[in-house]
Amino acid sequence: MKQPKPTKHSSVVFNQLCKLIPVGMVRNLASEHGVDKKSRTFSPWSHVVCLLYCQLTHCIGLNDLCDALRHHSAKLFAVRGATPPSRNGLSHANKGRNADMMEALFWKMLDHLQNQFPGFGPSGRYKGLPRRFKTTVYSIDSSTTIALVANCMDWAKHRRRKAAAKLHLCLNLQTFLPSFAVVEEGSHHDSSRMIALCARLAAGEIAVFDKAYVHFKHLFSLTARGVFWVTRAKDNMRYHVCKKRKVSGDVLRDDEITLKTKSSKADYPQRMRRVVARVEVDGKQTEMVFITNNMEWAASSICGLYQSRWAIEVFFKQIKQTLQVCDFLGHSKQAIRWQLWSALLMYLLLRFQAWCSDWPHSFARLFTMIRGVVWDRFELGDTLRFYGTAGEKWRMCIQPQTAYLPGFAL
User: Given this model, what pLDDT does residue 149 score?
Assistant: First the structure.
């Protein structure tokens, strides 16, 4: 039987994605950040649309992006009057315009979608998060350093022949969406951004992070605010055991401790909890040491919470392997920030479209599906339901069927 086709639509698929951004939001933000004063023929809205198209189609350079948009200039103009840029015009816009506008647009869109569609956020709950935790859990980490070219990007130089940028992120595991992010050069240590990443955490919420973010003075401030935290202990941490608890299963030690070093004890004078357990990493049992300020949870719950921290690595993988954060359109700090924040905005729009269409498959499959029909006039929801394997999941045959050939007997 012939496979049915999705419903035709008056707008192309890319236009339907861009229309998720409310009318006037970009114009107001451009006025607020002074971007409109630096734009004459290439409007801020055209700039945003151009970078979103770059993310969706994996354009590898300025010429690739500008030529593609110029070829589809009529369909592009239907996206609220967006116009294709010249190569030099796009290069100067990325370098000279304030990238804070794109950052503000991402957070504005995130608030807009979560407020208008309350079911959008909870639908993305990370499956590896233990169900018994009903309060908000945040995973904090920085992305694997985004390699840049040292001889072209002096602002991001952190070694003699290397340059890099970092994306520090606070990821809400209940929604699998960012709650705070910082894009900067890679020379800063992770712990230097810990205060900013945890500034919005409320009492009763939980923060999970790697030992690179361990700073006892800041950990004590989180405890004073009523925020629970779970992390790994550094190998050189010196402590005194105050109380031993009963252990079972893969939990080897569960102690209440105080810090021994004078400076560390001054920064964190209260007791904390130290748990030693065997956890599975890459199919092998590995012994890990965790510390936390919560004295009520079971030791297994602490281990489960830290394992859910790997959700942020899944998020970084989705961003790096699907969106365009490896080939940059410019060398300046503003150009890098424009492109990274546009990647996060495109991720948000695709996640929302997946929620609207009840998409059951991976984010990478969703990305490639939409990229293939970006200039087609199909209804986007029907496209996701009709094409490829989106209609139903495949089944595995128990045994292969025997081929019958005339004249041959088994």
Answer: 43
- 99 and 16 in a common domain: yes
Query: What digits encode the pLDDT tens for the residues 30-51?
Result: 999 999 888 888 999 999 999 9
Q: What is the CATH number of the domain that holds 258?
A: 3.90.350.10
CA-to-CA distance for 276 and 253, rounded, in angstroms?
Answer: 5
Q: Structural domain of residue 238, as residue ranges?
A: 129-316
Q: Which pLDDT band holds residue 396 (cuts at 50, 70, 90)?
A: very low
User: Do 297 and 170 share a structural domain?
Assistant: yes
For 355, counting Cβ atoms within 10 Å of its Cβ (0-12 exposed, 13-18 middle, 19+ buried), the class is middle
* Residues 186 and 157 both lie in one domain: yes
Distances (CA, A) of 173 to 72, 170, 366: 39, 9, 21
When comparing pLDDT for 101 and 191, which is higher? 101
The pTM of the full predicted model, rounded to 2 decimals, is: 0.84
Structural domain includes residue 327: no
Q: 388 or 113: which carries more pLDDT confidence?
A: 113
Residues 336 and 409 placed together within one structural domain of the fold:
yes
